[in-house]
Amino acid sequence: MVTASPLLLEFLRSSGDPVTLADLGLEFLEANGLPMTNAVRPFRVEVEPRQSKKGNTFYSYEHAKVPLPEGLDTLLRVGGEVLDFGPPRLSQAGNLTREGRARITHHGLDYDVLAYLTEGNKPYWIKVHAQKAPGKKPTKPGLVGGRIV
Predict the structure, then answer these.
(1) CA separation (Å) from 67 to 20, 128, 147?
(2) What pTM did the predictor assign?
(3) What are the pLDDT digits (tens) for 72-84?
(4) Residue partners of 36: CB distance under 8 A and separation at least 6
(5) What would you report as the CA-atom Rg of the chain, rounded to the nearest whole angstrom?
(6) 134 backbone dihedrals φ, ψ, rounded to 5°
């Protein structure tokens, strides 16, 4: 059973100001079942934790048809850290995309975050994945490779 808390994604303009739901337009609000009263709110997403087959907590989010007002110049803050995005490149499908990465700490655990902002014909596709960062396992007390005599 997953007991971790949701991970917050925040979409920002290149200036660092929040992207609001109104910036995404009426069609986006309607398509996502959001009332107009929410239009002044920042575009933020809570991603629920999931559990891998090995029992590790991870977070995964995808969203298609997002009309990002600044397109690939949009910034993304995940768990309080702004991702470092590389320059635009072509995706496997031939669409312009930017890849962002960061290592964040979420509730005392380190996570590696990988995000894609991809330009397509439906304007933008977003994918964010965060998984536990590899690291040393805590040392277990006890003797290894010998015996007390």
Answers:
(1) 12, 17, 65
(2) 0.84
(3) 999 999 999 999 9
(4) 26, 29
(5) 19
(6) -65, 145
